[in-house]
Predict the 3D structure of the following.
Amino acid sequence: MSSEPDWFFTILSLLFAGFWIFVTLIPFALLIFIIVYAVRVIKRMEHRAEERLSIQRESLSLQREQMELSRQPNSAAFTTPEEPL
């Protein structure tokens, strides 16, 4: 009969250890998960901002080229079409 209480206390201690892990370690794991997720989201936002900035720079350079081309006199642009007789 003395072995029955030993099993009871063993099971009780295992349940207490499981409860302790659930109460203490799982919140820390969730906190770490949230921090890692936030860092990934911030890195993704930074990457998208860099892409947008490079697209804006490219667009500005194309606009400058277009402005320079429109300022240059084009001989074909200043000719008047001949009227039929």
